[in-house]
Write a structure and sequence with these properties.
Immunoglobulin-like; 1080 residues; glycoprotein; eight-stranded mixed β-sheet; alpha+beta; zinc; Neutral Protease, domain 2; metal-binding; five-stranded mixed β-sheet; 37% helix
């Protein structure tokens, strides 16, 4: 690396133009609103604070060393709050070349004794020879250099091919705490200051930053230029954005601020994004009654981007698939693009203009942005049903995520790891759902007016949630508005933001009185009896059927243990939580459930569509928690054959898929429940298919649902779906056009049914060569549909080619892991890949830790069979795993224990309902979950078994079944007991060598030099039998013993050393699964 070259260019960039004047009056200083936690805190001390930055960055590729480097200089103008000899900044993974401190008024230089960079603490300490004095301003100038990163954080390199030539761009991703990886700074969100940015580039390159460029200068160094940009408004460090490379600008829409930048191959695919964006910005301006301060907006389609998009001030970065569309893109991807653009647009108000003061309050950015992602887009796209989609895509997802309580919306974070982990469903989806609940409680007017005042008052400021609620309280005081029943506003809302989880309200009827009680909801046994909420109650009955009035008619309060409601009418059923606006579940007595099921079967449209979705989701999750017999949700689901609206099916898909996944462990019952669910999936797929294909509907929700339900029905091997998908796949292979909205199902089914290497390779070739982001997305998911575990294993091995022009980018690997987890073969291949390559992933892949922990977490949520569990158990218990990874594995493993507990508790109820034979009993206890396990008994769990047949149905027997053939010839014997176990028999695999110009795949090679034998799937389905005939009996899967796991694999994993988080020196013995792969 030519260190002197980079530093020389940086010096020239800095000398080319002086720092433009930035106003730094005492009144304009940003005040840190969150105090440091003391000497041991990861927070910066409050003795100094920044007033403004002058930032110079120069990326450079050195051909001699084949290294991508960058150099930089930052001048930080600081104000001293308390006397100190030190300046403490955030910095990580860089070399500090020089440090200077100058007092601004006198221009006296202070001697710098030393400086020290602690990469682990991410702190740069600068020690001055004398104290920095209170009330004075100083300039701290630091020259530094580093490597352009490859993990898509900080200042990193992204590569792409254009006309067969590999090119690169240097681009930034600083959220949440990655600015410190690019330049020393006060990397906390409360420090909002102006930035004056200059970027160095070579003659054939271009640059972009947060503001318009005002000057370009040739440097006194051959082929180098400096671009200087206007000063930003006050922004936090994580919103600084920059790009240096060879991107091209698209043609701008007249009257629009938007420019889209990508490379030549995709310039014609940006029209959709540029056409939609101006209307989305206008919707936010109209709602907030305020304009943002943007002078320009650039959209970057970044080839390598970890996430969906980033809302940098004036320069939003996107994953390519969300802004690049040809004319033949699937409708759902277009919808996701518009909504992502709206989300980042909303961030201009929530996050950019008004910023959370610390990451505890991240939901003030993310929750509002998620909320307006739907509700502001609805103003532009009223026919997309986004108000209803919000409920089944955000509200429902948040309830599922938080039904094992995680953390409050207003969280408590300290370390960088804490901050990165807090970017989850709670601070986005759940926070948005709580905002929706607030809007319905107080009305849109009383939600909107104080919100706009909040934006005006704290413009360019940093806030806590206390600031937000204080504005609401003061506005309500002036308007003489109050919540009913003397409910204190702040107490009400903080009962939802300041504690984890949510409640379940239980409604029972005794003659003419409804009794309401509530408690914290959890799908697993919990001793939490302390959480309490202010719950606004809305309800209607079969006589009134008023689903429109969403403001609470009464309240359940923290100090109220029970509430009585009189009802003298002759109503037969009642529904609480109208349109699912409240963030809570509702349980009823069995008679009310029976009446609701009857109503759904007789005339489901008499119940609001969102409440139909709510009844499905609540009933299945109440049964999962042991608060309701499983016969109730299963009986309720039979009405779905009369449900033609797509919205309730979104809830049904999630709930039924969980049951099918868990029942894979049942030798007898799996085919029965899968057959029942398959019939339902086929029904809704046929319904939407007829509307789209036969009746040529242009309804947006129907078309996007057609895509979703075709994938669901085909994944369950529905005959109608499979036949249609194969017809479309054959057309596609013959270069005939098929609808992009059916392409996901067609490509996946084509690979699955053909189950040969040539077909898989053909789809891979399309994946690597297509210019359509939509088609590439379909092909990527389809490649995980193969039934050949060796092919799937090789698909995963492409991970290691990411830096050599391989077909898989790091950003896509997690999506591939998700797709793999949907089939038994994918689970097997993924597990073997993780076990055999964990050391290699950690050593070679920049995002190795993230990939390893993500794969394990996904697998832990999906495994069901003993051999699958045994592998993850051994991996978790491997000695000397890096502590961070081991802790993540332990946390994920809880999901395995919980899923086993569910199976042991409920699988017999599921089998009883479907009419499946009882699973064979074994001579040892089914499964010991853990030594400290609490049984899911209680009165709730007892109800699930003892009253399981209390709600009857005449349509509980599945009409068709599948037979899964297994080769279970032997039994395993222990010293005390004998239990049935499955031995995976060898399969004969035809070896087909595939080669193309760019990629080849062979079933004769493995990923490591050590010989590794991979097991084949033990759940291969045989031909479907007579649908009315029960499956032939098969040997039951062996029960799993946590104290006697097998087989072994890892013998030593020394702790990792070194600066890079992915460096590790693990030594593994590769697992050899008991299977012989015959190669013909």
């Amino acid at each position: 690396m030519c260190t002197n070259t980079v530093i020389t260019i940086v010096a020239l960039v800095c000398a080319a133009v002086a720092i433009r004047p930035i106003a730094c009056s005492a009144d304009s200083r940003t005040t840190a609103q969150v105090e440091s936690d003391g000497p041991s805190s990861y927070r910066l001390p409050r003795d100094t604070q920044p007033l403004a930055y002058g930032l110079r960055l120069v990326p450079k590729y050195d051909k001699g060393s084949d290294m991508y480097t960058f150099g930089g200089q930052v001048e930080i103008f600081i104000y001293v709050n308390s006397i100190t000899p030190n300046v403490t900044l955030n910095a990580k993974d860089m070399q500090i070349k020089s440090v200077a401190i100058t007092e601004m008024k006198t221009q006296k230089d202070l001697e710098v004794d030393s400086y020290e960079l602690d990469n682990d603490a991410e702190i740069l300490q600068i020690y001055a020879a004398s104290n920095l004095l209170v009330g004075r301003r100083y300039q701290v100038k630091i020259v530094f250099q580093g490597l352009l990163r490859t993990d898509m954080t900080g200042f990193y390199k992204s590569a792409y091919k254009e006309d067969g030539v590999t090119k690169w761009v240097a681009v930034t991703q600083f959220k949440p705490t990655y600015a410190r990886r690019a330049f020393p700074c006060y990397d906390e969100p409360s420090y909002k200051t102006p930035f004056n940015i200059s970027l160095g580039r070579q003659e054939n390159q271009m640059t972009l930053s947060n503001m318009p460029r005002y000057l370009t200068q040739r440097l006194e160094y051959y082929g180098w230029w400096a671009d200087h940009f206007e000063t930003t408004p006050p922004i936090p460090t994580y919103l600084v954005g920059a790009l240096v490379g060879n991107f091209k600008k698209s043609n701008k829409i007249e009257g629009s601020l938007i420019d889209v930048y990508t490379y030549n191959d995709y310039l014609e695919q940006v029209l959709y994004a540029t056409e939609e964006t101006p209307m989305l910005f206008n919707s936010m301006e109209n709602y907030t009654d305020s304009q943002n301060d943007l002078t320009k907006m650039d959209f970057l389609a970044v080839p390598d981007f970890d996430g969906d998009g980033m809302e940098n001030w004036g320069i939003n970065a996107y994953r390519e698939k969300y802004v690049l569309f040809d004319d033949d893109a699937k409708m759902k991807l277009k919808e996701q693009s518009v909504m992502l653009i709206q989300k980042l647009s909303s961030h201009q108000w929530f996050g950019n203009m008004v910023t959370c003061a610390w990451w505890d309050y991240l939901w003030l950015n993310e929750g509002f942005a998620r909320y307006f992602q739907y509700y502001a887009t609805e103003m532009v796209k009223p026919d997309w049903r986004l108000d209803e989609l919000f409920v089944v895509e955000q509200h429902l997802t948040a309830m599922e995520f938080d039904q094992t309580p995680r953390h409050p919306i207003t969280a408590s974070v300290k370390t960088s790891d804490d901050i990165q982990n807090i970017l989850d469903v709670v601070v986005s989806n759940k926070a948005a759902a709580i905002l929706r609940m607030l809007q319905t409680v107080v009305s849109d007017f009383y939600f909107r007016e104080p919100l706009n005042l909040y934006l005006q008052k704290f413009k360019h400021g940093a806030v806590t949630s206390d600031n937000l609620w204080a504005v609401y309280e003061n506005y309500y005081f002036d308007a003489d508005y109050a919540l009913p029943e003397n409910v204190p506003f702040t107490n009400f809302i903080e009962s939802w933001t300041n504690q984890a989880g949510y409640p379940v309200v239980t409604v029972t009827k005794n003659q003419n009185t409804y009794t309401l009680t509530y408690k914290p909801f959890s799908i697993w046994p919990s001793s939490d009896n302390t959480s309490s909420w202010f719950i606004g109650i809305t309800y209607t009955n079969n006589l009134a059927r008023n689903f429109i009035d969403l403001q609470p008619t009464t309240w359940l309060k923290p100090y109220t243990t029970v509430k009585y409601l009189r009802d003298s009418s002759l109503s037969t059923w009642v529904i609480f939580n109208l349109q699912w606006t409240g963030f809570y579940r509702v349980n009823y007595d069995l008679n009310n459930w029976q009446q609701l099921i009857k109503q759904l079967n007789e005339s489901n449209t008499d119940i609001h569509v969102l409440n139909r979705a709510q009844l499905i989701d609540d009933s299945f999750n109440l049964a999962r928690a042991g608060m309701l017999p499983y016969s109730v949700p299963l009986n309720l689901s039979t009405y779905l054959t009369k449900e033609d609206d797509e919205i309730p099916w979104y809830a049904a898909t999630e709930c039924l898929s969980y049951v099918v996944e868990r029942m894979r462990r049942s030798a007898e019952g799996y085919d029965y429940i899968r057959s029942y669910v398959r019939n339902l999936a086929e029904y809704i797929y046929k319904t939407t298919e007829n509307l789209v294909v036969q009746y040529k509907t242009d309804d947006h929700t129907t078309i996007t649902s057609w895509n979703k339900f075709s994938v669901w029905a085909c994944s369950l091997d529905g005959e109608y779906c499979t036949n249609n998908a194969m017809i479309n796949f054959q057309k596609w292979t013959q270069k005939e056009r098929i609808s992009p909205d059916i392409k996901d199902a067609a490509l996946c089914t084509g690979i699955k049914v053909s189950n040969n290497v040539d077909t898989w390779q053909g789809v891979l070739n399309v994946y690597m060569t297509t210019k359509s982001a939509s088609e590439k997305n379909s092909a990527q998911a389809a490649l995980a549909c193969s039934k050949d575990t060796l092919i799937l294993y090789k698909y995963l091995e492409f991970l290691f080619d990411f830096n050599a022009g391989g077909p898989i980018r790091l950003q896509d690997f997690k999506d591939i892991c998700d797709a793999m987890s949907l089939t038994p073969q994918g689970i097997e291949a993924s597990t073997n890949f993780l076990m055999n390559n964990i050391e290699r992933i950690l050593r070679q892949i920049p995002t190795g830790e993230s990939i390893v922990t993500y794969m394990y977490r996904v697998l832990a949520s999906k495994v069901a069979l003993d051999i699958e569990i045994a592998q993850l158990t051994k991996l978790k218990n491997a000695p000397e795993l890096p502590p961070k990874i081991k802790a993540s594995f332990e946390e994920s493993y809880v999901q395995i224990e919980q899923n086993l507990l569910w199976y042991n508790t409920y699988h017999s109820s599921i089998n009883q309902w479907t009419g499946a034979p009882a699973d064979p009993t074994t001579t040892q206890q089914d499964t010991t979950v853990s030594s400290t396990e609490t049984t899911a008994s209680s009165s709730d769990a007892t109800a699930s078994s003892s009253t399981d047949t209390s709600v009857s149905s005449t349509e509980t027997t599945s009409t068709s079944t599948e037979t899964t053939s297994t080769s279970t010839e032997t039994t395993s014997t222990s010293t005390e007991t004998t239990s049935t176990s499955t031995e995976t028999t060898s399969t004969s695999t035809e070896t087909t060598s595939i080669s193309t110009e760019t990629t080849s795949i062979s079933t004769e090679t493995t990923s490591t030099s050590t010989e590794t034998t991979l097991s084949t799937s033990n759940t291969t389905a045989s031909p479907v039998t007579d649908p009315k005939k029960p499956p032939e009996s098969s040997t039951g899967y062996s029960t799993f013993d946590f104290d006697n796991t097998s087989p072994g694999m890892i013998i030593r994993c020394p702790p990792k050393n070194g600066q890079s988080s992915y460096r590790s020196s693990l030594i593994f013995v590769l697992i050899v699964v008991s299977v012989t792969i015959a190669v013909l």
